[in-house]
Amino acid sequence: MFDLVIRGGEIVDGTGREPFNGDIAIEGNTIAAVGKVDTGGKAVIDAAGHIVTPGFIDAHTHLDAQIAWDPMVTPSTQHGVTTVLLGNCGVTFAPCREEHRELLAGMMETVEDIPKHAIMSGLPWDWDQYGDYLDSIEKSRPAANVVGLVGHCAVRYYVMGHRAVDGLATDEEIEQMAALVDNAMKAGAAGFSTSRVTAHRIPDGRPVPGTFSSVAELLRMAEVVKANGGGLMQTVLGIEGDADKVCDLLREIAAVGGNRLMTNTSVGRGDDDGRIMHERFQAMADEGYDVTGGCIPRGSGFICGLCNELPIRTPAWQALRDLSFEDRLAALENPNTYETLRSEGIAAVDDKTPEAGMMRAAKGFYWLGDGDHPNWSAGPEGSLHAMAEANGEHPVEMFLRVSKQTHGKAIFVFRVFNGNNKSLTDWMRSDFCLPGLGDAGAHVGQVMDASWATHVLGYWTRDAGVYSLADGVRRMTSEPARVIGIEDRGTLAVGQRADINVIDYPRVGQYHPEYVYDFPNGAGRYTQAGCGFKATIVNGEVIVEDDVHTGARPGRIIRHGRGD
Q1: Are strands 291-295 and 41-46 parallel, antiparallel or unpaired?
Q2: Residue 244's CB: how many other CB atoms inside 10 A?
């Protein structure tokens, strides 16, 4: 008998080939048979009427801290994700000298909106080198598999101390950093990450270490990655919004050879932005460079609602912000308070003052709706301003009315990124676009994009038909596995690790974001449940059954060059 048999599902194997009906047998943590399986199983999952896919791989998370106190890796594992990549954007917690712990925690708070006090109290801090950090995470026994990148910021702090922020590294310091990266990769890091986005800042307001490092320093790190058999160079490049300079720097890093590059991308509001993005990446591919653009697969930037952040900052709204959730609801029932909020908000929005906040952007502010599932993809007619006008209301009035009627559960999104659906669709179709960039574990009070996988499967694949089922699954499984450098996951084939989803395809989706207080010291965050998962399996063990966690925590630390 096999340990587990999945019977009679529509197998979408992750390679891009057409789906086919069949069975999958699992022995231990490995797929033992695919196709017709006559032998029985100690456990059997009836997959009739369901699709069976590889587990989804999230190539851009900041779960570096959360995974220590939330080994169920929520909400990622509630959306079919079975492997997560930590250490993006140059911000990691290792290597780390003891005296730099608060520096790294404070930087993670200002860059990624993860509360510093939760980080300091929630992490064991029992490491110095990057390999020690991976060992520490392994002790938490996460439900999902973990891959890690070593970050430029931590490496710079370790070598240069406070000079890491503004200082130009000497040749000797560059070599010391190179040695740390080499040590990290030999201990299992999948590659190196860096950021040159000036908006990424430390608590005193200065850009993070590495933002203004020399190109020679970056190229030296790329050489180390190459010398360790090649790996992932993850970059966040924001050279004053100059796309040509960004691509030129990507070319320089890629020219070192032997490495895969992944950088963050988004499209603007122009109808041609997606096509132009594709053409830039196509040009780099034509020159022989392996460069992939990660992209949030929907309009995103900030979410808000009565449960947490508010969109307007006039005195009355600031006073509302200082109240508890229950007291905010009570304040909306007070006619005088309600009128003050309404009149101050309308004046700020109409005059387009800074106090109008997110609602100043008439075309970018959207309500996710009151249906069972959030509407992330409404066109311009679905903006709050357009809907309010159609209802004969002011947008501020509609915000207040909807918030009151839903008892504070209404969630609104301000689309800073990917505000043009046509342009986003063009870029999503590109072979160089990797949907994801959900920032799971980060921006916990600002965004909720960790549900990107169910959005890709439910919207882009099933509803919009931009991807075929086979291609949509490929882009979430074997393609991120290739980019990260994971060889034994991402496809359903004999000998591969048994990371598998059994999905009710017509039903797959997500529920509305919720704000909860489950971080250390009672800190809050957004989370979001998924639906349609009959089973999610990690290394042969079921971690989600009928959309509910089983409590199993079979994840592994996937170390570069070692398997797991």
Answers
A1: unpaired
A2: 9
Mean pLDDT by 10 residues, the chain (564 residues): 98 98 98 96 98 98 97 98 97 97 96 95 97 97 98 98 96 98 97 94 96 96 95 82 87 91 92 94 96 96 95 97 96 97 96 92 88 94 94 96 96 93 96 97 96 98 98 98 97 98 98 96 96 98 98 97 69
| Alpha-carbon span 169 to 544, nearest angstrom | 47
Region label for 210, one of left (φ > 0), alpha (ψ between -120 and 50) or beta (otherwise):
left
Do residue 339 and residue 371 come from a single domain?
Answer: yes
Distance CA(161)–CA(167), nearest Å, equals 10
- Note whether residue 394 is domain-resident: yes
User: Token match 């995103």: residue?
Assistant: 300
Residue 537 CB partners (closer than 8 Å, separation 6+): 4, 26, 55, 82, 498, 499, 500, 501, 502, 543
The SS3 of residue 260 is: strand
Question: Mind listing the pLDDT tens digit for each residue in 323-375?
Answer: 999 999 999 999 999 999 999 999 999 999 999 999 987 678 999 999 999 99
Task: Classify residue 527: in a domain, yes or no.
Answer: no
User: What's the rounded Cα separation, in Å, for the pair 98 and 424?
Assistant: 44
pTM for this structure?
A: 0.97
443 and 324 within one domain: no
Give the CATH number, domain containing residue 432: 3.20.20.140
Residue 485 phi/psi, 5° resolution?
100, 30
pLDDT one-digit tens code per residue, 260-319 = 999 999 998 889 999 999 999 999 999 999 999 999 999 999 999 999 999 999 999 999
CA distances to 14, 82, 138, 222, 538 from 490, rounded to whole Å, are: 6, 10, 21, 25, 12
Kindly state whether residues 332 and 452 are assigned to the same domain. no
Rounded CA-CA distance 202/443 in Å is: 15
Helix axes 171-186, 130-139, angle to 10 degrees: 30
Structural domains in the chain (count)? 2
What is the sign, positive or negative, of the torsion defined by CA atoms of 307, 312, 313, 318? negative
Q: Are residues 322 and 470 in the same domain?
A: no
Residue (of 299, 284, 282) closest to 247 by Cα position: 284
Query: What domain range includes position 277?
Result: 56-297+422-483+495-503
* Dihedral, CA of residue 504, residue 509, residue 515 and residue 516, to nearest 10: 10
Max distance between CA atoms of the chain, in angstroms, equals 72
Residue with tokens 């929005």: 349
Q: Is residue 263 located within the same domain as residue 406? A: no
